[in-house]
Design brief:
alpha/beta, Rossmann fold, 2 domains, 12 strands, binds 3-hydroxypyruvic acid, D-isomer_2-hydroxyacid_DH
């Protein structure tokens, strides 16, 4: 007779090797494990999280064994049937249809992301499903990338390497490829949270003159750490030389960066978005960039993702577009994966998760 932990290990080996064909031994293991919580993992997550799930001896899990393509919706709706837990990434829409497909066993959802705009919180709450997410562990990586994107945009680094490579590099010229510097500037933060603070902390040594921010309400504790002044959205647009979007995407922030905002910005200012594409009206941004209403934009996030290669924004030299990589460092993605796995296991044990959303 197999111990339940050994049986689970065998089952997990089977579960993560989708091309193996279950034989009699597998059927026996499956029978023995029928009381162990079942979990579906919607992506090949980084190894630390998978190891935690495997070594826990607490769950039997199956995963969509690819990182290159998301699990097709139809397959996902099949796979979630009857599961107790679900570990997803931000490409999966967790809505009423999916939760209905999963059925009443589903108790815990763990998303490997700090953003949760892909989750229907109302539907999750209605069904009493607990939700884990992964804030904090990605703050440094996102702040670092935001600074890199800001500098690449304001100092025109992508244009410059292109010119150097393609013969545009003639003699040294007095105003060629000039950009805007951080020294003596005003940096505005739209949505002051941990990430906004971390960005400001990294920008301060570049001799920024002033930090300003806006949010639904003043956040004095956070603002104190970076000596930032609370202003209205209008003032943020008017005063910022660099405007960095750090807010979550909610119905209130959807397309809050639109022509009204861009119109108020200086024509020398740089707009940076590393939060969610939905916060920006992209047609209005295109207009603002192409008519010189603002000087440049750096986007790590767009609508849709991936942004089609024939999208007008790609035609603009003053728009730097990255493929949603702000948290993409090995250590951060592993930490997100581990936190998502631990949240899931704790939730399934009925214990407080390390990072749980209050619904
Ligand atoms: O965690 C998130 O919400 C992301 O956007 C990944 O960086």
């Amino acid at each position: 007779m197999l111990s339940s932990r050994m049986a689970l290990r065998r089952l997990q080996r089977i579960a993560v090797a989708p091309l193996s064909f279950p034989g009699a031994a597998t059927t026996k293991v499956l029978r023995e494990m029928s009381s162990v919580p079942r979990v579906y993992v919607t992506r090949q997550i980084p190894p630390e999280g998978l190891k935690i799930l495997r070594d826990s001896g607490q769950v039997q899990f199956e995963l969509w064994d690819s990182d290159d393509v998301p699990v097709p919706r139809k397959e996902l709706l099949q796979k979630v049937k009857g599961v107790d837990g679900l570990l997803c990434v931000l490409t999966e829409k967790i809505d009423a249809e999916l939760l209905d497909a999963a059925g009443p066993n589903l108790k815990v959802l763990s998303t490997m992301s700090v953003g949760f705009d892909h989750l229907s919180l109302e539907e999750l709450k209605k069904r009493g499903i607990r939700v884990g997410y992964t804030p904090e562990v990605l703050t440094d990586a996102v702040a670092e990338l935001t600074v890199a994107l800001l500098l690449a945009t304001s100092r025109r680094l992508i244009e410059a390497t292109h010119e150097a490579k393609t013969g545009g590099w003639g003699t040294w010229r007095t105003l060629w490829l000039c950009g805007y510097e951080l020294a003596n500037s005003t940096v505005g933060i739209l949505g002051l949270g941990r990430i906004g603070v971390a960005i400001a902390e990294r920008l301060a040594p570049f001799k920024v003159k002033k930090f300003i921010y806006t949010d639904v309400a003043p956040r004095p504790e956070l603002a104190k750490a970076i000596n930032a002044e609370y202003v209205s959205l209008d003032e943020l647009a008017k005063q910022s030389d660099f405007l960095s979007v750090c807010c979550a995407l909610t119905p209130e922030t959807k397309e809050v960066c639109n022509k009204d905002l861009f119109k108020k910005m200086k024509n020398t200012s740089i707009f940076i978005n590393t939060s969610r594409g939905g916060v920006v009206n992209q047609e209005d941004l295109y207009e603002a960039l192409s008519t010189g209403q603002i000087a440049g934009a750096g986007l790590d996030v767009t609508v849709p993702e991936p942004l089609p290669t024939n999208h007008p924004l790609f035609t603009l030299k003053n728009c730097v577009i990255l493929p949603h990589v702000a948290s993409a460092s090995y250590s951060t993605r592993n930490a997100m994966s581990a936190l998502a796995a631990n949240n899931l296991l704790l939730g399934l044990r009925g214990q407080p998760m390390i990072k749980e959303l209050k619904l």
